[in-house]
Amino acid sequence: MDFLQTGARLDITLRRDFNLLTARKVASLADEAEEIHIDLARSRLVDSEALMLLFRLVRAGKQVKLKSPPPILGEIIHILGLETVLNLEELVE
Amino acid sequence: MDVRLNLKSTVSVIGSVSDFTYKWSLNAGLSEEEAIRLALALDELVTDIVLFAYRDEPGDFDISFRRSLSTVEIVIHEQGEPFNLDRHVYNRNAALHAGNFDGAGFELVRHLVDDFSFVNRGRQGKEFRVIKSITSEHIAELILKDDLTAQANTAPETEYVMTLMEPKDAEDAARLIYRTYGNTYIKDELYFPKKIEMALEQGDKFGVIVRTPEEEAVGYFAVLFTTNSKIGEVGEAVVSPRHRRRGIMTKMLNRLIGESRARGLRGLFGEAVTAHEISQRVNAKFNMKSTALLLGAFPTARYKDLVESYEQDISIIIDFLPLVQETEKECYLPPMYAEILTAIYETLGITVCNKEAKAETLPAHCETDVEISHTFRHALITVEQYGEDLIESAHTMAEGMKDQDIRVLYIDLPLDDPLTPRFVPQLREAGFVFSGLMPMFHHERDYLRLQMIFTPLDLSQIVLFTDMAHTIRKQIEEEIAWTSFKQALA
For A58-79, what is each residue's pLDDT tens digit? Predict the structure, then answer.
């Protein structure tokens, strides 16, 4: 995982799937940031642990932006009925 | 079984499991999109094990990847803390309003795969099973309607050419099945040329195809590798009605027997349906011997031009043909089945030396392999090692199977294990009854199969052909008279 902290902005580029392992790393970096940009171009899948993290970050009032998320992200948000909080049109940059 | 992995329960294995699952699924024939869905399902299940099965204790778990022509199945087996899947139901409102995501992973798994089940194996741990269907183009989509109307009457006498099946013959074989049986052939994968092609390429089966001088395919017969043993199933056979009664089936089977011997197979078996006796007659004609009757092996079906309506689950007869003739065999026969098993062995040309079972040390835990077919609604437990907890484990699994709409549970017991005679009476008390002999069915070893059904079945509706098949049914009927199994058959 590559990341760059610039003031309140955190840019993260994942090198693999967005799962429990990477979600924990992202969570450990996200505390100080207000604006979090995550590049998911190399992630084949995003799992429920990652989704829970995104949910908590958005609920905490952080501005979360996703770049090139895998198509399955929209499907799992829909399955879990979280569209009102995790709105892909607002999340994807 | 295709692949089995044993993994430490650590966070770092999650990504490796999903990567492997994705690539294995692609090789098995899933599309890119479906392979990702299956990989995500595995990610969710392994994450659950890592987080909750062993908590902070070291632990490990097994993942088995199995592939057939129509489905892929992945089984995760762990022995962590007790767990009840029913208590972890995802609630969207709890997630949205309280941030409570309990059960979210399992909710995803249910949507991402075609079948998801949880099997509690008692002290042997727990299993998560996921199944995905492999989809491809159905032969009906490839055949023009005009093509079908060209079938009528008997074909003029002609010469036939028989060759070993190659992947390029797959579409013609599927067409032949479709034209002959309509949509009623039980093996669904034969309607998908791509699946036939893959099975041939991957060595899951081999076969022969018979053509006219005009290249029309009129006969197809294949041997499938459906067990974990060096035996083959003569499972797919068709001759165009216009070309029947010309010895095509006989010639194809003779060629397959020769080919099977050349490939080192030790036997061939057929699963003959008992809704009619045609398949059993054909097997008998080729000197196959009836060794077992499997009650309710799959849901009822219509058999084009044979049986239009059969009201109960289909039972099958196992017919076996040894390709390497053994004349003697040492076994531990349970006393109550010694006579009938000896008689079955005799039909196979084998004299049994029934060894006396001495007192053996019994491990605390048994080791079993479990296969569940949701399509056919049956399950099979294969005993690999006896243990004190076998009966309890079988009982727990049987209860779990009922909840999953499994209609019959079979259990295979090794006849070369001196503990088999000790456990058969207990399994009978638990509700299992005789099924028969499964020769060389697992790793070239002979097994006694017992069975327990959970749905009503009228044994008098089962159509049998050979004398031994009738003897086996009589044995089952006698046992039913005193077991609790009687209620299910009432």
Answer: 999 999 999 999 999 999 999 9
Q: Element (H or E) spanning B104, and its range? A: helix B104-112
Residue of B nearest to A21 (CA): B11
**Are B50 and A44 an interchain contact pair (Cβ–Cβ within 8 Å)?**
no
Mutation to test the A interface, candidates B89, B101, B107, most A Cβ within 10 Å: B101
Terminal C-alpha separation, chain B? 37
For domain A2-91, the CATH architecture is 2-Layer Sandwich (3.30)
Work out the burial of residue B169: count CB atoms within 10 Å of its CB; fewer than 13 is exposed, 13-18 middle, 19 or more buried. buried
Taking the CA of residue A89 and the nearest CA in chain B, the distance in Å comes to 19
Instruction: Answer yes or no: is pLDDT of B93 > 60.
Output: yes
Using the CB atoms, write b or e for A23-34: b if 16+ within 10 Å: beebeeebeebe
**Band of pLDDT at residue A24, cut at 50, 70 and 90:** very high
CB pairs under 8 A between A and B: 75
pTM metric for this prediction = 0.72
Query: Per-residue confidence at B298, pLDDT binned at 50, 70, 90?
Result: confident
Of the candidates B487, B460, B483, B484, the one whose C-alpha atom is nearest the C-alpha of residue B473 is: B460
**Range list of H helices, B29-102:** 32-48, 92-98
d(CA B209, CA B240): 12
Report the phi/psi class of residue B292: left, alpha or beta, with left for phi > 0 and alpha for psi in -120 to 50.
Answer: beta
pLDDT tens readout for residues B370-402: 888 887 889 999 999 999 999 999 988 888 888
- A14 reaches B (C-beta below 8 A): no
ipTM comes to: 0.96
In whole angstroms, give the CA distance from residue B200 to residue B198: 5
Interchain contact, B101 vs A48, CB within 8 Å: yes
Q: Closest Cα to residue B437, out of B420, B419, B412, B416?
A: B412
CA distance B208 to B169: 10
pLDDT > 70: what percent of chain B?
92
Of the candidates B250, B233, B249, which has an alpha carbon nearest to the alpha carbon of residue B241?
B249
| A82 close to B (CB below 8 A) | yes
CB within 8 Å: B108 and A44: no
Q: Is the pLDDT of residue B486 over 70?
A: no
Please state the domain extents for chain A.
2-91
Q: Which two tokens stand for residue B238?
A: 């068709």
Nearest CA in chain B to A82: B96
Could you report how far apart the first and last alpha carbons of chain A are, in Å?
A: 19
For A1, the 3-state DSSP assignment is: coil
